Every structure is written in C-alpha cells, then in structure tokens.
Amino acid sequence: MARAAVLVWLVSMTLVSTHLAQGLGVNWGSMASHPLPPSKVVAMLKENGFTKVKLFDAEPSTMDALAGSGLEVMVGIPNDKLEKLAKDYGSAKDWVKENVTSYLYDGGVSIRYVAVGNEPFLTSYNGSYVKTTYPAMKNIQKALYEHSKDIGTKIKVTTPFNADVYESKSDKPSGASFRKDIRQTMVQILGFLKQEKSPFLVNIYPFLSLALNPDFPKEFAFFDGGGRSVQDNNIQYHNVFDANMDTCHYALKKEGFEDLEIVIGEVGWPTDGDASGNVRLAKKFYDGLFKKLAKGDGTPLRKGKVEVYLFGLFDEDQKSVAPGDFERHWGIFRHDGQPKFPMDLSGKGQNQMLKPVKGGGNDGEAMIEVSAGDVAALSLSAGLLLAMTFFTLM
Ligand SMILES: *[C@@H]1O[C@H](CO)[C@@H](O)[C@H](O)[C@H]1NC(C)=O
Ligand SMILES: *[C@@H]1O[C@H](CO)[C@@H](O)[C@H](O)[C@H]1NC(C)=O
C-alpha cells in the first residue's frame, strides 16, 4: 500500500516536471577552446529535461550527436555568411542541403528552425547586415520548399534579434516602435514571418539593463517584486522582462503584426565579469524566471506560455569581451560541464544542482562558486538535495 502510494507520487512528480519543463530550450554556443564531447553534452541535456537546443551554426559533430536524441533543434547561420546567401541562391541551396536536409534521415536530427544570422541589426554592427538579412532568409526558406513542400512547411526560418531593434519614446511599453534606421526592413521581415507562420525571436537581457545603467532600479531586473514598478496606462510592471516583452508586443502591433508569436531567443545571467555578474544574482534571476515560466501566465499583454531559450549552456572562453568581461561567463555550466549553482528548471524552487556532463574531464564533486553570504543557503540546498536523492532511490 505504502509502496503503491510512493509510486503514484513519483509518477505524478515525473508528469508534473515533464510538463513544466516542456518548451525549455538552451543556447549551445561553440566559442570554447576546450569543447566537451557533443554526445556527452546531449546526454546531459536529456537527463536534465531540456527539450530544445539553439545552435549558432551547424557543426557536423554537434549535429551528429543530436541525431536520434529527440531534442528539437534550431540551427544557426553566422552573420558573415549572410551576404553570400542573400546574393547567391545556389549557396543557400548548398547550405540547406549540407546543414538541414542531410540530417533529416530516419532517426536523424529534429530540426525545427533555421536562425538566419544572429542579432544582425545590432546597433554596434553599423548597419552591416541590414540589406542582406531579409534576402538571405527568403533564399533559405525557398531552398527548404524546393527540397519538398513538406520540409518547407515544417522547418521555419527566423532571425534572433537583439531587443535594441525597438525603442520607446516614452520609456514605457506602449510608446514602442521599431528603430527608424531599420523600420522598413523590419516590416518586410515581419510580413515574411507572418506568411510563413514563423515566430519573432528576440533576446531579452535584464542583466544588461542593470549592468549598463547605474540608475536602473535593481529589483526591477528580477522577479521578486518589492522594487520600483512602472505604470503604463492601466498596467503595472514589476519586472523589466515583462516590460521588455510587452514593448516588443507594442512595436509589432504598431506595424499591424501583433499576432506574431514572440519567442525568447536568449535570456540569462552571467556569473562573473561585472559587479552584478555573480552566482548569487544569477541564482536569484533564474529562480524567478523558472517560477514565472512554470506559472505559464506570460506577460500582462501576452497571456500564456512563453517559449524560452536560456543563454547559455557553458562558459565560452573565446567570446569577444568587447561588450564586457561578463561575456565569457554566461554558462549555467562551467566550461568543464559542472553546474555552477542549484537550479530547478521546473520552477518549484527545489535547490538541486543540475546533472553535470559525465566524462567531461571532471567527474568529481561540483565546485560551487559562492561568496560567504551564500553558504547558509547552500547548506540548506545540500539538505534538500539529499532528501530528493533519497526519494528518488525509493
Ligand atoms: C554548413 O554549416 C557549417 C557549420 O556552420 C559550415 O561550416 C558550412 O560551410 C555549411 N555548409 C555550406 C554548404 O554552406
Ligand atoms: C562601427 O563603427 C565604429 C565607429 O566608427 C567602429 O569602431 C566599429 O568597428 C564599427 N563596427 C563594425 C562592425 O563595422
């Protein structure tokens, strides 16, 4: 009887956590000098309950490891390829053949999206990719359709944009519009996304709001409330994530595209390289984010579940530090595949460490980067971790 009860409890726990983790993706970057074996990484992703990955390219070793995994994949095309793909349909066809359709064999890679370029309209790129992004998107989609109508319909082309593609004159969501210098191109792209039923991808970084602006009200970067809020007409915003996503909604609406789905291409918090980049604040941010995602009630203007890709999987020591020293510390795992701090993807706030990459070079105890202030919290979490292990073993 008791055993049956425990079994039912375990089964329902499994169902609940699978349900809550559904839709959680993560960005798997490749700018590391000592990348971990892709097959071990894929095993770890599955063990932790991730269901999707977003790549910035389509490296064969990564793609081969993803084959048969059931993970849903967004492959990426780097910005420096956009010009060629825009001007030469033949090279778009070659790209699709080599990096998409060759993986669609039985038991192959479950490719759902192709991300054409990465934040191509970032202000610091000085407009370098404004003319080529849209034609490259069209050529890739056309090549997918040319392979087969089924593939063209199933695999969607999109482009992850930085949130600096829109702005707000009033500093409130309702005052939003797309940046003037790219507005015309944006409208073309939005029309394309609508026609193809593709989502609008945007990367939202509360960390950058806080790190780049000394006057930013700190608590507004997190999800715990208690800080300053922003009143916009009859809506009160308690965190910058919601406010930013609704700013995106208003910018789309202003151009007549409020029906486009918004997917968060990147969201996360670094653990070093800035006064606000540390384990304590990263944990605070992710705890709040996962609770929010588990509730599934979206933002004030966009009710319902939000599709999210965390940024990022590992620390990457070959990323440019031009934006700041924090750039190499975005990983929820260290470069060696060990988790940095307790994280509960299901949003239930259990202080469990994610499972590490096995055979990634360091199979020992996870080294936890903590300041003295975190020690009490962590010994509590170690207790919970033991309790969880105990239950799972039963
Ligand atoms: C396919 O993607 C890989 C990795 O991103 C790249 O090196 C290669 O050039 C691409 N293939 C074609 C035909 O463009
Ligand atoms: C953009 O312009 C700035 C200032 O002129 C320059 O320093 C930077 O290298 C340029 N960036 C690109 C990607 O062209």
Automatic annotation (TrEMBL):
Q: Which family does it belong to?
A: Belongs to the glycosyl hydrolase 17 family.
The keyword Ribonucleoprotein is annotated on this UniProt entry: no
Lineage, please? Answer: Eukaryota, Viridiplantae, Streptophyta, Embryophyta, Tracheophyta
Organism listed in the record:
Rubus argutus
Q: Which GO terms describe its molecular function?
A: glucan endo-1,3-beta-D-glucosidase activity
Q: How is this protein named in the record?
A: glucan endo-1,3-beta-D-glucosidase
Pfam families (UniProt xref)? Glyco_hydro_17
SUPFAM superfamilies reported for this sequence: (Trans)glycosidases
Q: What is its EC number?
A: 3.2.1.39
Q: Does the keyword Hydrolase apply?
A: yes
**Which PANTHER family does the record match to this protein?**
GLUCAN ENDO-1,3-BETA-GLUCOSIDASE BG1-RELATED-RELATED (PTHR32227)
